C-alpha cells in the first residue's frame, strides 16, 4: 500500500491580503459549480489512483476553506471517502481564518469530519494585523482558538508571520508568548516574504514600505527557536514546531517525499515520480473538468538527479535523512563523498548522526540553506 496525501484547494477568500500570492478569488460566484467540478475531478483521479493506495491525510487549503458552510466540506469529504481508500484514522485538516467561524460553525465542522484545525492568525498585534490587512483582531484570534478547543478540537495549529516592517524582537516574542499560552499543539512560523505580483511587493517597490534585512530576520528566527523549545515545542521542520505526538501527517508526506494528489484550481500533485499542476483560474478549471475530467495545465517528469536532490533537501529541512531509506532509493556513493563535510558539521553541532539518521540541530536549521548549497 502506497501512503498518499490528498490536498483540496478551496479558492474563495473574503478579501485579498497584501502579502498573499496563493490563488484565491473574492467573488462567491461559482461556489456550487466549483463543488460539482471538484467531485468530477475526484472521480477522474480515483479511476487512476485508487488501487494499492492508503490515503492518510486530507488537507483543505486555500483560499479560506472555513468560509464555506460545514455541509459543503462534508459533502466533499464523503465523496473523497467513497472514491479513495481514505484511512479510518486519516488526519483531516482545514485552514481556518479567525473572523470566518464562530463556535457553532466550528462544532459543525468537527461533526463534518474535520479533526485538525490550522488557524491563520499571523500576529496578535493590532497594528501588525492591520498592516497585513487581516480581517481579524487579537481578541477574535484568541477566541477562535478557545472556541476550537471547547468544541473538541485537540489538534490545533496556528500560523504566525515574523520580520514584519518595524517589528522589534520584543514584539515578536510577545506574539510567541500569547501563542504558547493558548491550547494549541503546533505552530508554523514564516518570515514575511516579498512575492512578485502582491500588493506588498508594489508598496516596497514604490518606497512606501521598507522590509527589514536578512540578518535581522535570522535573529528573529533564532529567537523563535529558543523560545518555542523552552515552552515544550520541538522543531521537526525549518518552520514547524509541535508538541510531541502532533506532527502534521499531511506535511510530513511532502517532506518525506511521499506521493500527494492535489485537486482544485492551482493545486500541485506528485505521483509516481511525475509532478503536475492545475490551471490557476476557477473558470478555466471548471471548463477543463467539463471537457477532460481533469484541469492539468502542465506536468514534468522528475529525473533521477532531481529526485535525489529534492529528497535530500526535503529530508534535511524536516525530520532528517534516513540513511536506510536513502540507500534503498538511491544506489550511489553520495554519502561517502560528503562524509568529511558531515563530520565537520557534527563537530560544529549543526547536525547529529545517530542510528542511521542525519538530522539538523536547532543551530543547523538556522543555516540550513547554506548547508544544502554545500552538499547539492
Ligand atoms: S486569507 Fe489567506 S489565502 Fe486568502 S488572501 Fe489572505 S493570506 Fe491569501
Gist?
This protein has 376 residues and is an alpha/beta fold.
Can you list the ligands bound to this structure?
A: iron/sulfur cluster
Strand content: 15-25%
Give the tally of structural domains.
2
Give the strand order, joined by hyphens, for the main sheet.
7-8-6-5-4-3-2-1-9
Question: In total, how many beta strands?
Answer: 15
Description of the molecule:
The protein is α/β, with parallel strands linked by helices and 376 residues long. It has helices at 31-49, 70-83, 103-112, 126-131, 138-150, 169-180, 199-205, 214-230, 249-255, 282-292, 304-317, 323-329, 334-337, 339-347, 362-366, 368-375; strands spanning 2-10, 53-62, 86-96, 116-122, 155-162, 186-191, 234-237, 240-242, 259-263, 268-271, 274-278, 296-301, 321-322, 351-354, 357-360. The radius of gyration is 21 Å and the shape is globular. The strands form 3 sheets. A 9-stranded mixed sheet has the order 7-8-6-5-4-3-2-1-9, with helices on both faces. The chain has a 3-stranded antiparallel sheet with strand order 10-11-12, with no helix packed on it. The model has no long low-confidence stretch (mean pLDDT 96). The chain starts with a strand and ends with a helix. The protein folds into 2 domains: 2-255, Aldolase class I (TIM Barrel), CATH 3.20.20; 321-375, no CATH class. The structure holds iron/sulfur cluster. Iron/sulfur cluster (SF4) binds at residues 13, 16-17, 20, 22, 24, 62-64, 97, 120.
